[in-house]
Amino acid sequence: MNFVDFQAAHILTLIPEITLILLIPLIMALDVIWPESRRRQLGLVTAIGFFAAIVLALVFSVPNGENALLFGGTLRNDLASFLFRVIFMFAGGITALLSLDVEGLGRKGEYYAILVGCVIGMNFMASAADLIMLYLAIETASIGLYVLAGFLRDDDKSTESGLKYFLFGAMTSTVMLYGFSLLFGYTGETNLYAIAQSLKNGDVPTATAIAIALMIAVGVGFKVALVPFHFWTPDVYEGAPTPVTAFLSVASKSAGFAVLVRVFLIALDPGATQWSPLMTAMAAVTMTLGNFLALPQRNIKRLLAYSSIAHAGYAMLGIVALSKDGLAATMFYLLAYVFTNLAAFTVVILFSRVAGSDEIADYAGLSRRSPGLALAMLVAFLSLGGMPPLAGFISKFFVFAAAVQSNLIWLAMVGIINSIIGLYYYLIVLKVVYVKPAPEGAPLIEIPRPYVFALGVLCFAILFAGTAATPWYNWAVDAAKSLF
Amino acid sequence: MVPLNWYLTLAAALFCIGLYGVLSRRNAVAILMGVELMMNAVIINLVAFWRYLQPTNINGQVFAVIVFAVAAAEASVGLALIISIYRRRNSVIADEMNLMKW
Q1: For B27, which DSSP code?
Q2: Which CATH code fits B4-93?
Q3: Is some CB atom of chain B closer than 8 A to the CB atom of A182?
Q4: Chain B nearest C-alpha distance from A221 (Å)
Q5: How far A262 CA sits from the closest chain B CA (Å)?
Q6: Where do the domains of chain A lie?
Q7: Which residue, among A148, A155, A165, A184, would best test binding to B if mutated, counting the most B CBs under 10 Å from its CB?
Q8: Which residues of B touch A185 (CB under 8 A)?
Q9: How many other CB atoms sit within 10 Å of the CB of residue B48?
Q10: Domain boundaries, chain B
Q11: What Å distances lie between residue A99 and A139, A246, A350, A374, CA to CA?
């Protein structure tokens, strides 16, 4: 533990967050100033803001390798948090682009402002090294997401999804908070690294430590949608506006993993022998249940919801492996998953704009209505299914390898069988897209330019991360090392 | 002075009552009330731990203050969502929110 007294240079690490905080009033001001006809550009402003924040982060905020605890120990300046923050800001920027032409969202300044607020919360979730900061960051992100899920006030499904998300989220985060309060009480510390030290000294009785780990697992399990805390996922994903669903499925899930890594592998690490069997079982059940429940789905958003549950299970493999390789594999997995799932949801958004439907049967003949969109869907879904040479394959390979290295061969086998089941339902969707004929007189699907840009970036990233994985993976390995 | 254990027992009881309320109530407002009870249990816990075990460490009190600030924010967003659904359906019964199911 090395607390560092405040220095002006520490502000540099927060440059991206400061940029985003300034972006919020800018969006709200432009929302008031601009006439209705120009407000479509609000999304562009937001996206540019996010990408500017990434560039500023890469210029000013790259951690110097000291892994110091800044601002009184509330934040930790390490490569892992930096990697996660870049992922969140990228996901935020792409989500802003995807929202541009969506009815009821695209021209609303407050939508983009809340989106930016959520990303700020997630950034702090990734870098928090203190229970207080962690809780505050989790709630900053969650409360914004509740509003985003229920954003379409005139839509029955959206309001229902917002309320369901809120009720589940409020309950699980409070259970986690009770765990935090006990952790503070027994160790007398709020800093995660100090808590780890205190646990190592045996300040907490074993039974209490297990209870605390369980309570925290409830809150984090909700965020990343692990079985048995996944009930909200399909309903919320289906009802929420699709760009919000895309954001939830990638950014919120990755943020949950950032917290999971920091809390379980750092603070609760001395009790790993007690919680790891539970987490292993949860990972296996999550993969299996997610994939099996995805099989009968007819709505593409629900299918992707169950598939995202299954993917949370795969990503857990790297964590229960309890090794640095496993942690790196999980981070790489999340990176690949962000690109892939955002691409899949982009296709869903573009299709439902024209067709007004999310039913898989209506995707018939998409390859003739828009060959480019069908191709993007092919890339995204094959990557989700884990086909080489796409990002989904190599990332699955890394997590399975990490599990095997830690002698969890049965778990890797469960994962491989599950990927085959997963591939089946992804291919069924692709069959509808490519083989079934389009209905008579179905209009061609136009893709607006910002969406072309977003899809292009995402498909390129999927291919690039899949074929030239080494630099990305090395980055993840460095990040995993920097955590400890 | 009242022993620390009594406070912790009170907090645990309050937490369990809140959790029972959340799991058994059908009215969304009542569920929200259950969540607030759970939050209060956490605050009692934090303040008791701070007062008895760590009176020199300000973190416990800061944590308690942050928790009730967040509880207020959460309640207001929750009530707003409940109002938005009430306007559509004239009902806040959680069981009736079943447009989407598998």
Answers
A1: B
A2: 1.10.287.3510
A3: yes
A4: 18
A5: 19
A6: 15-267, 272-484
A7: A184
A8: 8, 45-46, 48-49, 53
A9: 22
A10: 4-93
A11: 23, 10, 10, 20
Contact indicator for A178, B45 with CB cutoff of 8 Å: yes
Q: Which residue of B has its CA nearest to A153?
A: B84
CA–CA–CA angle A193, A196, A200 (5° rounding) = 145
Could you say which DSSP state residue B99 is in? S
The owner of tokens 């009802």 is A239
Q: What is the ipTM of this complex?
A: 0.96
User: Looking at CA atoms only, how far is residue B82 from chain A in angstroms?
Assistant: 7
pLDDT in tens, chain A (484 residues): 556 777 888 888 999 999 999 999 999 999 999 998 888 899 999 999 999 999 999 999 998 888 888 888 899 989 999 999 999 999 999 999 999 988 888 889 999 999 999 999 999 999 999 999 999 999 999 999 999 999 999 999 999 999 999 999 999 999 999 999 999 999 988 999 999 999 999 888 889 999 999 999 999 999 999 989 999 999 999 999 999 999 999 999 999 999 999 999 998 888 888 889 999 999 999 999 999 999 999 999 999 999 999 999 999 999 999 999 999 999 999 999 999 999 999 999 999 988 888 999 999 989 988 999 999 999 999 999 998 889 999 999 999 999 999 999 999 999 999 999 999 999 999 999 999 988 887 888 889 999 999 999 999 999 999 998 899 999 999 999 988 8
